[in-house]
């Protein structure tokens, strides 16, 4: 069964670009750079512009898929495993919030968590669903100190995601 969904916005804001492939589309600001999707499972990434030469990290939104064929994973199990991995896989990882949301009849898990990467305090917002024997994970990654500057734009990017 094919689903099409959007968290909020159906048309691209002025100056935004659209990434479109056979499985989904997503919109992102025109002054953000679209990244290389050569990593395993990475389908899309968009990076904020560098604020200054002191900027240590470029905030980003990415989409990763994981093949779950034959693994008998539903959203409940995927959420449970993902929550457990935060403290194990991320230095000083801490889950702040994990809740189920339904958007246009499709269930998602939204997780907000913090941790460290290369001595930088980070904050993450991840939305994921299990669809057609695969997990689809959309993640906003920010320096924790920059989160308030990028959370609205990041959520707007994620809200433009449409599965075909």
What order do the helices and strands come in, and which of them pair?
Blueprint: E1 16-20, E2 24-29, E3 33-34, E4 42-47, E5 60-67, H1 75-89, E6 91-103, E7 106-117, E8 120-131, E9 134-143, H2 147-159, E10 162-163
Antiparallel strand pairs: 1-2, 2-10, 3-4, 4-5, 5-9, 6-7, 7-8, 8-9
What would you say about this model in short?
This protein has 164 residues and is an alpha+beta fold. Helices cover 17% and strands 46% of the residues.
What does this molecule look like?
By secondary structure, this protein is an alpha+beta fold. It has a single domain, classed as Mog1/PsbP, alpha/beta/alpha sandwich (Protein Transport Mog1p, Chain A, 3-Layer(aba) Sandwich). It has 2 helices and 10 strands. It has helices spanning 75-89, 147-159; strands spanning 16-20, 24-29, 33-34, 42-47, 60-67, 91-103, 106-117, 120-131, 134-143, 162-163. A 7-stranded antiparallel β-sheet has the order 3-4-5-9-8-7-6, with helices on both faces. It has a 3-stranded antiparallel β-sheet with strand order 1-2-10. The radius of gyration is 16 Å and the shape is globular. Mean pLDDT is 88; it is low at 1-9.
Largest sheet: 7 strands, antiparallel
List the strand order in the largest sheet: 3-4-5-9-8-7-6
| Number of E strands | 10
State the helix count. 2
Report how far the terminal alpha carbons are from each other.
Answer: 10 Å
Strand content: over 45%
Given helix and strand content, the structural type is: alpha+beta
CATH class placement: Alpha Beta
Mean pLDDT value: 88
């Amino acid at each position: 069964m094919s689903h099409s969904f959007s968290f909020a916005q159906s048309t691209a804001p002025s100056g935004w670009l659209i990434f479109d492939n056979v499985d989904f589309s997503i919109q992102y600001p025109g002054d953000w750079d679209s990244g290389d999707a050569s990593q395993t499972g990475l389908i899309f990434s968009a990076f904020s512009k560098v604020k200054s030469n002191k900027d240590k990290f470029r905030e980003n939104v990415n989409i990763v898929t994981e093949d779950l064929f034959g693994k008998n994973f539903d959203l409940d199990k995927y959420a449970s495993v993902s929550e457990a991995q935060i403290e194990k896989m991320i230095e000083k990882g801490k889950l702040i919030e994990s809740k189920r949301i339904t958007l246009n009849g499709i269930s998602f898990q939204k997780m907000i968590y913090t941790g460290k990467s290369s001595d930088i305090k980070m904050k993450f917002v991840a939305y994921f669903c299990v669809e057609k024997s695969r997990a689809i994970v959309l993640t906003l990654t920010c320096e924790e100190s920059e989160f308030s500057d990028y959370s609205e734009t990041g959520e707007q990017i994620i809200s433009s995601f449409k599965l075909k």
